[in-house]
Structure formats: structure tokens, C-alpha cells
Amino acid sequence: MTPALRIKDLPPSERPRERLAAQGAENLGNADLIAILLRSGMRGVSAVAAAEQLLARYQSLDRLARASLDELRAFPGIGPDKAVTLKAAFTLAQRMTRELHADSPLLDTPERVADFLREENRPYEVECFQVALLNTRRRLIRVEKLSQGTLDTILVHPREVFRAAIVAAAAAIVVVHNHPSGDPTPSEADIKVTRDLIRAGQLLKIEVLDHVILGRATPERPKDYASLRELGYFFQ
Predict the structure, then answer these.
(1) Rounded mean pLDDT, 110-124
(2) Which CATH class is domain 4-101?
(3) Cβ–Cβ < 8 Å for 163, 155
(4) pLDDT, tens digit, for every residue of 137-146?
């Protein structure tokens, strides 16, 4: 009986694992990537050749991903272990796709911004400056923590804020920081930083939607955040 041809029996230049490490996964074809999952081929056939036969049988990655475990096990040379490995890999890819297409949080009001970031900021004992990067629909791309300051001072430069926004291809941003004192009233420095960011955003065509300061609610001050837009510090 002819033994299965293993990947390690191939010359190094033909081994998919070594090629992935050297060239990057994006530079490998579908058959090479599937061969890495298979690890070894069938009798007298390499893993790459076996992967090519699988792709020829199912015609597309989508049809291969939808194949049942029984169908995969029935394919010559696959067996239960390789069938499970393939099914696990395709299921993870499907779940990742659903995550990417799921709606991210909508952060179009200061209340929603405060609700989203309140608990993360609650334990901070010094001021922490963050920027929420948003797409054109005002939905979150991600939050970047940019800097930490002292109990009552934070230093941030527009280039740091907009570098993150440009890398993320953000259409708009909301800047956020906390006041460990609990009083979210903006300081003169907060107002100056906000206006500097608005001017920079206008030049870069990235809208600064708001600057939200998080504090703590009290009986006299039931709202635990302040919005510089609501307070009138934004201008066209």
C-alpha cells in the first residue's frame, strides 16, 4: 500500500506552512491554505493535491464550507480528523463574517457615548483621554485610548487623535475623557483642546461630533457627564 504523501516529504519551497511563514497567508492560494489544515495527503498524493481535488469537487469555498461532516469524511483520504478540522476552520470563518457584518454600537448622542464608556472609565484615578472612531452612520469602529494625565490635567495633541482616525478610515470621532473628581464640568484646557480638535478635523474632513466628559452623578447633579456640544462650545 502506498503511504500518504506528507507535507514534510515535499521540498521546503513546496511546503505550504513554510511558504506561509515566509510570504504571508494572503499570498497563498486556497489549495495551499486547505493543505495546511489537512497536514497530509492521500496515498501517493500530497496535501496540496488533495486540497485541489476537494476544491474541484465542490467548485467553491462556499460550497465546501457548507459540506456536512459526513460528506467530508466520505471524500477519499479525508477521514474523521481532517473532516473535523476543516469544519471547525470554516465555522470560525463564518462566525467572523457575521461579527464583521453585525451592527456596531450607535454613538450619535452624548448619552449613548456615556452609557457605552461609563463602566470602563469608572475605575480610573487619573484623567484618561479616549477617542471613539465612527463610520459614516455614526456606528463605532473602535475606541482608542490615547493618553493618561494626572488627577486634573491631561495632555493630548490633535495629531495623535487624527492619526488613529485616519488609520481606521473613520468619518467622524467623539473624544471622551473622565474627571476623577466626579465633576464633569469642562475646564478651560478641555475647551481649548476641543476647539483645536474641531479646527484640525475641519481641515482633514473628519468631523468632531462631541467631547464628552465623564464624572459621577450627585443629588444636585443627576447627569454624570457633560457634552461640550450641548454646552455650546462647538461652532461651524
Answers:
(1) 91
(2) mainly alpha
(3) no
(4) 999 999 999 8
When pLDDT is cut at 50, 70 and 90, the band that residue 96 belongs to is: confident
DSSP character at residue 104: P
Helical axes 188-204 vs 158-167, angle rounded to 10°: 40
Give the model confidence (pLDDT) of 38-81 as tens digits.
887 655 567 888 889 889 999 988 888 888 889 898 888 788 88
Using an 8 Å Cβ cutoff, are 178 and 156 in contact?
no
All residues at 6 or more sequence positions from 2 whose CB lies less than 8 Å from its CB, including other chains: 43, 44
The answer to whether residues 177 and 225 touch, using CB atoms and an 8 Å cutoff, is: no
Residue 236 has pLDDT above 80, yes or no: no
Confirm if 227 and 212 have CB atoms less than 8 A apart: yes
User: Which H helix or E strand runs over 189?
Assistant: helix 188-204
Average pLDDT of the residues in 98-116 = 86
Listed in order, the ranges of the chain carrying CATH 3.40.140.10 are 110-227
Cα 71 versus chain centre, distance: 34
Per the prediction, the chain carries an average pLDDT of 86
Q: Where in the chain is the domain with CATH 1.10.150.20?
A: 4-101
209-223 core/surface letters (b: 16 or more CB in 10 A; e: else): bbbbbbbbeeeeeee
Buried b (16+ CB within 10 A) or exposed e, 61-82: eeebeebeeeebbebebbeeeb
* Homologous superfamily in CATH for domain 110-227: Cytidine Deaminase, domain 2 (3.40.140.10)
* H helix runs in 39-154, sequence order: 47-58, 61-65, 69-74, 79-101, 110-121
